[in-house]
Structure formats: structure tokens, C-alpha cells
Amino acid sequence: MRGSAAQAGNAVPGPRSGVWLLVGIVLVAANLRAALTGVGPLLPGIAASTGLSGTGIGLLSTLPLLTFAVTSPLVGRTAHRHGAPRTLFFSLAVLVAGLLVRSLPGVFFLFAGTVVVAAAIAYGNVLLPSVVKSTVPEDRIAQVTGLYVTAMGLLAALSSGISVPLAEHVPGGWRTALGGWAVLAVLAIGVWIPQYRRPRRVAATPATRERIPWRSPLAWQVSVFMGLQSLGFYTTIAWLPGIVHDHGVGEAAAGWQLFLFQIIGLVSSSVLPILVRRGLDQRLLAAAGSAIVAGGFALLAVAPQLAVVSSVLTGLGGGACLVLALSFQGQRAADASQAAALASMAQSVGYLVAAVGPLLLGALHDLTGGWTLPLLLLVALTLTQAAVGARAGRDRHLNSPSLVPTPIGD
């Protein structure tokens, strides 16, 4: 029964529909970061316009990650009930609404819209690994993941680079600059309509919903690796412009520094799939990528005048680690159903870990009056990530969920 269901759920689309599906996946991915990465360079302007304190700005930066953590466990149940294509379609519609609400005048709408935007993005974050697992051969998962991560990174980098110049030249300033990303979400909705109409028997949603593997050590290794690499990324997104600005760089130039970090990450995420094409054991890659990120943070701590080199290093290692973190959620699972359960766990735990980063770095900066101690803490956390990645990168699958005890109420 389960085998036949899995086969139906994993049916591979024909060439034409397969290309359309791939384009849809790429466009969905393009919406998963751009709406958030453009906020960092605009934070000084947002603070000046709204009167938010440093704590309020830190909360605004952390709120999406907390929303990811709370929303991710709910995705599997919703997708099981409505199907992954329809769930993604509605999440894109919610994303459009959230982007428009966030751009309305008033601090309430800024925070409320941020929560709605992050909740919609959480659905895409969780469901894309399952979609890829169910439609792509095992040895191609890293390549397709790399493709959609490339799209995600390209738009994220563009958002960081143009947000300040755009805010300076459009009516409505930063509110219009943030709300304008609704156009990209509407485009994704248009391309995703054929997947919405596709019969559920060929959709990328399993017929049975697997329980989240809370008691699997491998699942925890995947989740912690996801969390630590996300912590490094979102902390960089939130504070890199502020760090370089504190060392005499203008706001627009600080935004382009963040653009450089993400462009290097984009190049790295594009190249990594070539390196993993021949095997599914990525222990060395996960450890090496994490160590490179640690080196970038260390350099920024001791020689902030070399921030460009630091951005190159953190982008190089961070792009590789992002592809690995997402690939693990498919490769460490036995089937699409288990991939969805593992992705729910990895992204719930992962973003809860990541949420600590921007707040903790801001608090340490306020306490010490500088960035050295906060950055050295990032070095230590990223070295821990290297050790965890060496375990999560093993070529193994989770135990069958039916053999893993699961708490009642999961």
C-alpha cells in the first residue's frame, strides 16, 4: 500500500511539464530570500523613520527566523491535506499580501507584515526539498538544489544591493522598496498555476504523512547544521552593513558589501553541485565550507579594514554550506515523505537556532561597545558547525519512521 502510494507520489513529469515544473521551482525559490535580505541595508532608515530602538530593530531582524521556527512544523500537515503544489500556490498568494501589508505606514503593519511574509516563506523552505526529492533522481538532488539555491541567492544579493538606491529614488522610500517584491511573487504565482491544477496523484506530496523524526541522531545532526549555517547567514545579513558602517563606510556602500557577500555565495552554491555529482558523502565539504566561514569571521574581527576579503571568505563557505544543508534534507531521507518530515524538523530547529544570532550579536555589541567579541563568538559557533557537518554529511538514510518512537501528539 505504502509502496504504491510512494510510486504515485513520486511520478516523474514528462519533458515539457518537467521543464515547467523546474521553472516554477526556481521562481518559488527566488521569492524565499529577496523579501528579507533587502531589509538589512535599510535598517538605519527604518529606525530613523519609525523611531525604533536598537532592541526593536534587533527584534525586527529576528522575527522572520522565529516565525520560520514556529511555522515549519505545520507545513507537513497542510501539504498532506491540500497537496504540495496547492499549498505552495496559496503560500505565494499569502506572500503577496504580507509584502503589501509590510509596506503600509505604521510600526504595527511593519511587524505584522513581516510575520506574514516569513510564514509564507517558511512553506516554500520546507516544501521545496520534498518536491525535489519526489521528482529528481537521487544523484541529481544536489544539482537541482544548487540550481534553486542559485536563483534564491541571486535575487537575495540583488535585493541587498539595490534596496538603498531604490529607496532613495522611489516615492514612499523604504516602504516602496520593500513592497515592490510583490511583483516577483505574482510572477511566480502565474508560472505555478499548472502545478496547482495538476492532479494530486502526480503531485510532490506523499500519500501518507510521516512523523517528524525527533529521536533520530542523524536528523538532529542535519537540523543543527541547518541551524548554525542559517545563524551565520542571517546574522551577517542583519549586521554586516552595520559593522562596516561603524568603520567609516557609507550606507549605500555597506549595502553593496552585503551584495558582494551574497554574490560570492551564489558562485559557491553554483559550483558545489559539480563537486558532489559523483557521491553522496559530503563530510569533508561540510567541514571545509564551515571552516572557511569561520576564517572570514575571524578576519573581520581582527582586521575590519579587510572586510572585502572577509565577505569573500564568508560568502564562499556560506554558499557551499547552504546547498549542503538543503541537500541533506533530501539525501538523508529514504523517500519524499520522509524528506518532508526531515525538512520540517531541520527548518523548525534550524531557524530557532538561527534566531539567536542577530539578537545575541546586537546584545554583545551593546555590552562591549565593539564587534570583536561578537565576531569571535561567531567563529566558535561556525567551528562547531564544521564538526556537526562532518556527521550530517555521511552517506546514510534515517531509520524507517515506523521503527522510530515518536512522542504522542506529534
Automatic annotation (TrEMBL):
<feature type="transmembrane region" description="Helical">
    <location>
        <begin position="371"/>
        <end position="390"/>
    </location>
</feature>
<keyword id="KW-0812">Transmembrane</keyword>
<feature type="domain" description="Major facilitator superfamily (MFS) profile">
    <location>
        <begin position="17"/>
        <end position="397"/>
    </location>
</feature>
<dbReference type="InterPro" id="IPR052524">
    <property type="entry name" value="MFS_Cyanate_Porter"/>
</dbReference>
<dbReference type="GO" id="GO:0005886">
    <property type="term" value="C:plasma membrane"/>
</dbReference>
<feature type="transmembrane region" description="Helical">
    <location>
        <begin position="283"/>
        <end position="302"/>
    </location>
</feature>
<feature type="transmembrane region" description="Helical">
    <location>
        <begin position="340"/>
        <end position="365"/>
    </location>
</feature>
<dbReference type="Pfam" id="PF07690">
    <property type="entry name" value="MFS_1"/>
</dbReference>
<feature type="transmembrane region" description="Helical">
    <location>
        <begin position="218"/>
        <end position="242"/>
    </location>
</feature>
<feature type="transmembrane region" description="Helical">
    <location>
        <begin position="110"/>
        <end position="132"/>
    </location>
</feature>
<feature type="transmembrane region" description="Helical">
    <location>
        <begin position="55"/>
        <end position="75"/>
    </location>
</feature>
<keyword id="KW-0472">Membrane</keyword>
<dbReference type="InterPro" id="IPR036259">
    <property type="entry name" value="MFS_trans_sf"/>
</dbReference>
<feature type="transmembrane region" description="Helical">
    <location>
        <begin position="87"/>
        <end position="104"/>
    </location>
</feature>
<dbReference type="InterPro" id="IPR011701">
    <property type="entry name" value="MFS"/>
</dbReference>
<protein>
    <submittedName>
        <fullName>MFS transporter</fullName>
    </submittedName>
</protein>
<dbReference type="InterPro" id="IPR020846">
    <property type="entry name" value="MFS_dom"/>
</dbReference>
<feature type="transmembrane region" description="Helical">
    <location>
        <begin position="173"/>
        <end position="193"/>
    </location>
</feature>
<keyword id="KW-1133">Transmembrane helix</keyword>
<feature type="transmembrane region" description="Helical">
    <location>
        <begin position="254"/>
        <end position="276"/>
    </location>
</feature>
<feature type="transmembrane region" description="Helical">
    <location>
        <begin position="20"/>
        <end position="43"/>
    </location>
</feature>
<feature type="transmembrane region" description="Helical">
    <location>
        <begin position="144"/>
        <end position="167"/>
    </location>
</feature>
<feature type="transmembrane region" description="Helical">
    <location>
        <begin position="308"/>
        <end position="328"/>
    </location>
</feature>
<dbReference type="GO" id="GO:0022857">
    <property type="term" value="F:transmembrane transporter activity"/>
</dbReference>
